[in-house]
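The following record pairs a protein chain with its ligand, S-adenosylmethionine.
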Amino acid sequence: VIVSRDSIYASIKDVVREKMILGLASALTLARAKAYCKEMDNISKLGVIPNQGILQSEGLLKYILETGVFPREAKTLKDLRDATAKHPLGFMGAAPDAGQLIALLLKLLNAKKTIEIGVFTGYSLLLTALTIPHDGKIIAMDPDREAYETGLPFIKKAGVEQKIDFIASPAKPVLDKLLEHDVNVGSFDFAFVDADKNNYWNYHERLMKLVKIGGIIAYDNTLWGGTVALPEKAVSESKREWRKLALTFNNDIAKDCRVEIAFLSIGDGIIICRRLH
Ligand code: SAM
Ligand code: CA
């Protein structure tokens, strides 16, 4: 029963996700998202974690989250995650297990200056702000100010707002502006990219200049629901275009000798790049 429901609602979810990522969310798609979320609530009431992630296993994801992630998640992050779940597009929020990995990377890097592309309600943003030191800075960009403002009370409550410079804009012009000033070049320790997938390579070229040698860039959703491993005809039409973009980006990154990479099956797939030169 769960599988058949999931496949019906997955297609609605994809349409909304694509429109949202493209900044084209309309009243119609929002209404469909609300209907989707209502149904997902009903499924959740059955005690099932609806988003199985790339593991495609409710049991394993539940085990990981309940054993190692939720017990260690900061209260403000949990509160933001709960508020995001009520948002009509709440499924876009970052996966908490992937968030845990990002926090660990930030700590290992001793990251102080970071870039966040694709904020939504700010789960990964708050997580980063909580992890970097008091005088750390995050330049965060997303054209959707309203979604950011949903998460803002939690950021304020956590006392980390001063670390965040949120710019309500598509990321590309902001990155270009940063590159106009030499002081920014090679100055960032870390970047998290979780936005419009058709621009990932544009972001990569710019981030390769902004992030310092030895710094890290993490790209989210690189396994696109597992569709990258399926033949095109086995993938629903709404997922095909994004599957193709992920395939191209993944192939290009795999060949880019300016970075070393780790290709991870966590969340919806993350590629971690370390800039070599
Ligand atoms: N990282 C977020 C989190 O932790 O919950 C999730 C980000 S959500 C999957 C994708 C976001 O990318 C959306 O909020 C959308 O508005 C944003 N986006 C879409 N096009 C963009 C663009 N050109 N530049 C920056 N952000 C964009
Ligand atoms: Ca994502």
